[in-house]
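Our platform keeps sequence and structure together, in a single record for each protein. Nothing more is needed to write down the fold, since each code stands for a local backbone conformation. An entry from our holdings is shown next, in its original layout:
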Amino acid sequence: MASNNENAAYVLLNGKPIGRVVDPLAFVKEVISFRRKGLIPNSINVAYIKKLNEVHINADRGRVRKPYIVVENGKSLLTPELKEKLKRKEISFNYLLLHGIIEYLDAEEESNAVVALREEDITKDTTHLEVDGASIFGLTMNLTTFNEHNTVAKHHLGANFIKQAQGVYALNYSKRFDSRAFLLYYPQRPLIDTAAYRKLNLEKHASGQNFVVALTTYFGYNMMDAVVLNKAAVERGLARSAFFKSYIAEERRYPGGQKERFAIPPPTAEGYLGESVYSKLSDDGIIEKEMDVKEGEAIIGKLSPPRFAEEPSISGGTPIEKHKDSSIVLKPNEDGVVDEVLFTETLSATKLVKVRVRSIKIPELGDKFGSRHGQKGVVGLIVPQEDMPFTKDGIIPDMLLNPLSLPSRMTLSHLLETLAGKAASYSGRTIDETPFTEKNGYEKVKDYEEILKRYGFNDMGNEVMYDGRTGKPFESKIFIGVVYYNRLWHMSSLKLQVRSTGPVQLLTRQPTEGKPRRGGLRFGEMERDALVGHGASMLLKDRMLDQSDKTEVWICKKCGNLAYYDYIKRQPTCYIDGPGDFVVSVEMSYAFKLLLEEIKAMHILTTIHINTE
């Protein structure tokens, strides 16, 4: 194999050079031939990188590899006879691997392969054939239907929605104490599924429901990404879920023999929050199951030793032990029912308590829904059933989807599922729509029309619908069918953030930021620019000054320096010029005052000139 030819290609084994070859293509072909004959392990992959003029042989661990059917002389080596033997279990998958009929390729060898999707696509240049058409997609993407009719961007979006969907995430959810968990009340298996969905037994972990969806507008309430829901369907349990949140507390030990303990904090404890906060705790400081709890109420009472060791106070000759309140309290906008309480021990033999709080999440305005095809939408309106459109058979849709959201996003698969779901619901069978796979019988798209005709419907799924408010039929027929929708964990009740007054930062005296700290919404520079562009000066002052960090500062008109108010003499006084009428009060942002003082700390004098005219 070694060669002194300058044009010879280097051979690298797991990234290390081991020699050179004059004819790299022939060398690669020979290695592949040996692998298929079983002379070398089938875990070895080889590829010629023309750009680098190098042959890469990979045999290391951790490579992602994918099986392909070998194609020779324009024909697949997996013959119909072998397929029949596989069905009868006369041979196994390992037999195909050992005899070079199927081989695994890694990323580098795959780049030199010409792969056909179907057997009829094989040409004289084809080197491999896909084992299954759906195998070009990943696991999550194979759970969505009609993928071959979608744009690429919607594949990723639909796969993300499946990961974000509320459902039965684990069958032992009642024994688990996850930090956050969602459980759908009435999960359903989809009417249109795929081979991957059935193989993974995901009907046991269903994460959505079959919605009756009509493509129509509703007075602008479902424009853009919004959807309109049927109030009666929501009250019957449509997309209703439970939200679980777990709280954990531990009796920690500290150096010096001090340790924490679970108890109801006494009024003498440092940071005591008031008697009403601890009213629902038991004698041991832990809340009971099925107790209603609201924001600000304690669910685990805990006492910690003080941060710094202090001399114990003597009262009547008895030392008073000091404690700090470290109770677990529900944060703002949190409430629910105590679902479960667990007592256990850590590895270091300290007591550990876990409390799981349950709250019911009924769909409301702002909650997010998504189909398996990347069609997401938030609830724009929940309409009483009597005001919803209905068909001649009295079918009232669960959801109204804006028809303009389909052509703009090029999700033809959503339309196909609507039609197929309608056909499946009347035929009483689920339909297999694994992407890039041949189907038999009525499971072809063209056969959906025949099913609907058989049951007396329009072959394209359109129906005459009546306005629930007037009782009159709409001028045009409306497309209505069944679509599998997921309720996503983005819910307005978990993101709601409202503040009028509240805590401020110690340094800048501006409102705190973030929901856990009862903060306000940030009014940034771009929002400021919008008000400046509109000339809304008073609104700008209200947002940036009055509602933020407005403060009154004493300024000396003579020297322009900051002054102060002398409470002993009861008059404002300048550090340089003393007291007098020339010291005036000026409104300004506290952050600006802070800036002046920071500049002074750098030995730069700044003065403020006040125009009194």
Remarks:
- The chain has 13 helices and 37 strands.
- The longest strand covers residues 351-361.
